[in-house]
Design brief:
This protein has 174 residues and is mostly helical. The chain is built from 7 helices and 2 strands; from the N terminus they run H-H-H-H-H-H-E-E-H. Helix 1 runs parallel beside helix 4, helix 2 crosses helix 3 and helix 5 runs antiparallel to helix 6.
Length: 174
């Protein structure tokens, strides 16, 4: 994509490149290089996520009011492009891109105060439970339901544990 970047965007791009040059250790680069699939080794991915969190860039799509950097669309593009060009490791972005935005929009003040900082600081590995015994990930055949019971919901059904997540836990994940 060709974009005419403003002087401010070019300066931002230089900042991102400088950060990546400094922050990407040989070990992290090698771990990312050896993983051409969707997910990198959890120890490498988590180390990179912690580095981004310390810089305040882990939740780069988030608005400043929720702890993100509050970047423009162009800045987010620059950051993601430069990360791709530098060969950064993949990270578990379920909390960043799925859980966080839902909590921002629908969460109670208490949920926002608890959940959002945990995502910003990469304290947990977030996942979604789609798979069920007998259904796999066929969303049309899922049987689990939630029934309102006063102020609570009763959840009925079963979910399957994602094996890679379990392996990550065994390999030193969160």
């Amino acid at each position: 994509m060709d974009i005419d970047l403003s002087k401010a965007d070019l300066a931002f791009q230089d900042d991102v490149r400088g950060f990546l040059d400094e922050a990407l250790s040989d070990e992290i680069r090698e771990g990312a290089r050896l993983t051409s699939s969707v997910r990198g080794p959890v120890t490498i991915s988590r180390r990179w996520a912690k580095t981004l969190a310390a810089k305040g860039w882990l939740c780069h799509p988030w608005p400043a009011e929720h702890g993100g950097p509050g970047w423009s669309v162009v800045q987010r593009y620059i950051f993601e492009f430069e990360c791709a060009m530098a060969g950064t490791p993949t990270i578990n972005n379920m909390g960043i891109r799925m859980v966080g935005p839902v909590v921002m929009k629908f969460g109670t003040p208490e949920q926002k105060a608890t959940v959002l900082p945990s995502i910003l600081n990469d304290e947990f590995a977030w996942c979604q439970g789609y798979s069920e015994p007998g259904s796999g990930s066929d969303l049309a055949s899922l049987q689990t339901s939630a029934v309102s019971d006063g102020d609570d919901y009763i959840v009925n059904g079963a979910k399957r544990l994602y094996r890679q997540w379990r392996q990550d836990m065994d390999d030193g994940g969160p």
